[in-house]
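Q&A log
Question type: sequence-to-structure
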Amino acid sequence: MPSHSIFESTSHGSLGSKIFILLRDRILNESYQCGDKLNELTLAKELKISRTPIREALKQLELEGLVESIPNKGVYVKGFSPRDIDDMFEIRLSLEGLAVSFAIDRMDEVHLAKIKEVFELLEFYTTKGDFDKVNDFNILFHESIYQATQSTYFEQILKDIHYYVSVTSRHSIARPERLESSLAEHRAILEAIIDGDKDEATERIQRHIRKTQMLVRKYYATRK
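Response status: OK
Response body:
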């Protein structure tokens, strides 16, 4: 094992951000469980860095609502509650319906070609049953629609929300039958976009989100 940190060439200002992303991913991917304590010294030793960027990252995680700092006790993982997850889906439902409508109005041939290309890759990896790749291209499919709105502000808001939702949603496509039905839903969205039918595209993308929301609810209900 190398004695140096993988973050050693990173400037101090961006180091805290990189540690935040690393710890956030661990929480969202359930490497850390709700109630786990995040110890500054232990993390600093593991990552071979000083405690200062760890402290900065933990503060940012607390602002995001993913951890809780308890005086005289430490920092503990909170994760997401079922209500948090439902709230994110409701926000995404409204914003993504608007996004696909904007995209149809504003996209050019380059944006449309990108959405088609991503769908083809999504289809390919679905037939292969490659869950990790399907998850990656599922995210990219939706982000390609956000990009087609040609609104940097709107795209960033949606990407932030979709990041959290996509991590919790990965459980919903872990079954072969869901891989196939999810692909069919994305195909229907693409067809409506190609047809330039904003109402149909909005309905189809919202139907897809509702289906995913229902499956995520079932997943978390089984974990109670």
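Response note: The longest helix spans residues 82-106.
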